[in-house]
Amino acid sequence: MVTKVVDLRSDTVTKPSEAMRAAMAAAEVDDDVLGADPTAQRFEAEMARIMGKEAALFVPSGTMGNLVSVLAHCDTRGSEVILGDNSHIHIYENGGISTLGGVHPRTVPNNPDGTMDIDKIVAAIRHRDGAMYYPTTRLICLENTHGNTGGKCLSVEYTDKVGEVAQSHGLKLHIDGARIFNASVALGVPVHRLVRAADSVSVCLSKGLGAPVGSVIVGSKAFIDKAKILRKTLGGGMRQVGILCAAAYVAVRDTVGKLADDHTKAKVLADGLKKIKQITVDLASVETNMVFFDIADPRITPDKLCQVLEQRNVLAMPASSKSVRLVTHYQISDSDVQYTLTCIEKAVEEILSGNAKFERLTNGTTTNSYGH
User: Which domain holds residue 24?
Assistant: First the structure.
């Protein structure tokens, strides 16, 4: 039995590397709310360059990044945003766009690949002559990669088409790019090209990239000027934030090149899971660092399986009443993958034989908690 914990609950569980910690300790800082933190300024300028946009802004979280972006584009109450019915903004962000911004969500069904049909997006756009009765459509939101459909990548061709729809109707396009670098690496498309059609993009720094805290939003200078005010309004104006930006800079510099390894490990996991009789997994659906698998035997529930795995120091997350999610990241090794597969196989055997002991999960996971 190994003493190390193999944590596959999410790529949000990564710990900062020694290089990140050293950068944090050495960071030159000042008051960022006053616009004076030099490390934050350098990091934001670098992210704007990488993403091909005019400006960038560091925010404490991806949820705040998406909220600030939506509110910046929809600055009139009674605005409406078109977004996927299975999107992170719609499901996992506490309804912030409506409760805090008075922005109405109009959902379009997400397809299994994370896209929304173009014709359905167009049909959801409100006609201006209905302003007496309807909210005013001002924004379309995409998510890339799309978490709830297994980390699927939206192609540059699809994103461009949605951008064309937005532009032709006088709308803005925001991309929830929490894992946009995973999509870029998997598709072999430079990240700036992948988001060229977008008016704004949020990028999580504390998922696969491994920074301890934060996200960044990018867009035009005018957009970022509005976003700074909204960030402050929402309580996201922080002082010597360069300490966090220093770690984020190292994360972008050092970890993007490792994302392909995470994707490979996810595919190895999926391939190994497919060999276990009681488990079904669609190998073709594993495009990035997420693996969703279904349990075919009704005697084995995701909660039970995750409880037994935790006893073997493997942490996983129930995704539904019959499925489990595993997420690879840069702190998961090849041996961790093989150990996980061995543990899952033995856990299945223990549960079916009646020898498994079930205890309440202590790793913070709950059913349907995979909005991370």
Answer: 18-254
